[in-house]
Design goal:
Layout: H1 3-10, H2 14-22, H3 32-38, H4 43-46, H5 60-72, H6 76-94
Length: 95
């Protein structure tokens, strides 16, 4: 999927997505549900919480380790995007 296609799927401008990816703008919390859906993560997984819709086998740590390994396989741009999303979620959680 191209950046333009992904932005269209999220209902945002391609340039806005580009700004999120390079860290010029923060991803708004209101966009997180659409992001986790399209990136095939649950919001609970993103926050390292058990997802009640999934099996309880395996710890949150092992799931997080698998996610980190998967993110490491992404392009640097996509890794930056995931990092920005995490920064946004963690900043919101601290409030």
């Amino acid at each position: 999927m191209t950046q333009q296609q992904f932005a269209a799927a999220l209902g945002i401008a391609q340039q806005t997505l580009a700004h999120y990816e390079v860290g010029r703008s923060r991803v708004p919390a209101s966009l997180l549900p659409a992001l986790v859906e399209r990136l095939m993560f649950s919001f609970e997984e993103l926050l390292c919480r058990p997802d009640p819709r999934r099996s309880s086998k395996g710890s949150a740590i092992s799931r997080l380790q698998r996610q980190i390994a998967a993110v490491e396989q992404l392009s640097k741009t996509k890794q930056q995007f995931v990092s920005e999303m995490l920064d946004t979620v963690l900043a919101k959680a601290r409030k």
